[in-house]
Amino acid sequence: MTDWTHWPFLLFYFPLFIVWGLYCLRSRAAWFFSASNPTIAFGGFEGESKSEIYVQMPQHLYPQTLVVPPQSNEEEWFATIEKMFSFPFVVKPDVGMKGILFRMIENKEQWQRYHRRMQATYLVQAYVPYPHEVSVFYCRMPQQQRGKITAIIQKNLLQVTGNGRDTLLELLQQQKDAESFLPQIKKQQGRRLHQVLQKGERVYLSLVGNRMNGATFTNLTHEADDALLQLFDGISRQTNFCYGRYDIKCNSVEAMKKGRDFLILEFNGAGSIPNHIYTPGVTLLQAYREIIQHWRALYNISKAHHKSGVPYWGFWKGYRFLQASKKHFNRLKKVDAEMVL
Question: Which residues pair with 93 in a beta bridge?
């Protein structure tokens, strides 16, 4: 219990609920954050469509993407996929969270199994081979041309190196705290788990860069210079994304600063967690301070948008949206638990 980074959600956030409640009272709106990013449903707090976010960005900034409806004609869609993508490619729900039902597809049979079991609209997306995955947290007041990069992290994906004797599963079980993310890795690796890796062979156990899948974070906020800010100021002004976290794959941070060799995997809006609080050396009080500072920015951005005519969502509209999202995610979690490709 002394390691706060593994506390349950309610235990960790309980002392902060009063801060959130005060912002609700000051704005006289339970869903004040819904005005933070006007072009994203619910401000991007939860339940937003990834494809609707992608179409607001220039095409060269995100991977080639195809939206596939559930229970649609298998052969027709695979013919389209064959023309647009080569193996491997990735699939994920259009409305998703925490890596649920994210899979790497390496052949037609895997895609067929995914397509037949998937119960919601999903995305087929080109695999991005850049070696580094980073997150950039960006905030900008609506009336201003320049914003602020408040955090940058590098995501270190869980990987193992073969020794010529042990299977992928055995190597995973040798990892520290492996039991906490073993279920997620088993689902993503499927039948590969029982293959023996050759000596020196490296395998990423998960391409999902979150802590539930064994990823660790390195704080790169010192890289937030004027060149990087200009890049994200330009993207933000085009999309009207004013608060949130860009998840990116890049060849290097230096190349990204020059505007090349990077692709945006996702933009997470009002519900974004400033993940740099989970980098080594951050204390509980420092984490709380960072969250409160980001919530203050979220409140001020939402208030400014509201003053310019962007309405806050009404209570019942927001409540129904959250309930529908909860039902949707519960359905996806059930499919995810059963799907092994």
Answer: 122
Q: What's the rounded Cα separation, in Å, for the pair 264 and 246?
A: 7
**195-87-159 Cα angle (round to 5):** 45
| Separation CA 173–CA 14 (nearest Å) | 33
19-51 pLDDT, tens digit each? 999 999 999 999 999 999 999 999 999 999 999
Strands in 132-139's sheet, in edge-to-edge order, are 216-219, 148-156, 132-139, 243-250, 262-268
Helix (H, G, I), strand (E, B) or coil at 152: strand
Residue 206 CB-half CA count within 13 A: 29
- Please choose, from the candidates 74, 54, 53, the residue with its C-alpha nearest in 3D space to the C-alpha of residue 64: 54
The pLDDT of residue 213: 75
pTM for the whole structure? 0.91
Low-confidence ranges of the chain (pLDDT < 50): none
Helix (H) or strand (E) holding 223: none
Which two structure tokens, joined as six digits, stand for 309? Answer: 């005519």
Q: At what angle do helices 284-307 and 17-27 cross, to 10 degrees?
A: 10
- Tell me phi and psi for residue 78, to 5 degrees: -70, -35
Q: Are 271 and 44 in contact (CB under 8 A)?
A: yes
Judge residue 164's burial from the number of C-beta atoms within 10 Å of its C-beta, 0-12 exposed, 13-18 middle, 19 or more buried.
Answer: exposed
Residue 243: both structure tokens together: 């608060």
> Of 305, 317, 331, which Cα lies nearest the Cα of 35?
305
- Provide the b/e sequence for 1-39 (b: ≥16 CB within 10 Å): eeebeeeeeeebeeeeeeebeebeeebebbbbbbbbbbe
Residue 301: closest CA among 231, 238, 244, 232 = 244
8 A C-beta contact, residue 313 and residue 33: no
CA angle 264, 265, 269 (to 5 degrees): 85
Whole-angstrom Cα distance, residue 201 to residue 38? Answer: 46
Q: How far is CA 222 from the centre of its chain?
A: 22
Spatial distance between the Cα atoms of 155 and 284, rounded to a whole number of angstroms: 21
Please answer whether residues 52 and 40 qualify as being in contact, where contact means their C-beta atoms are separated by less than 8 angstroms. yes
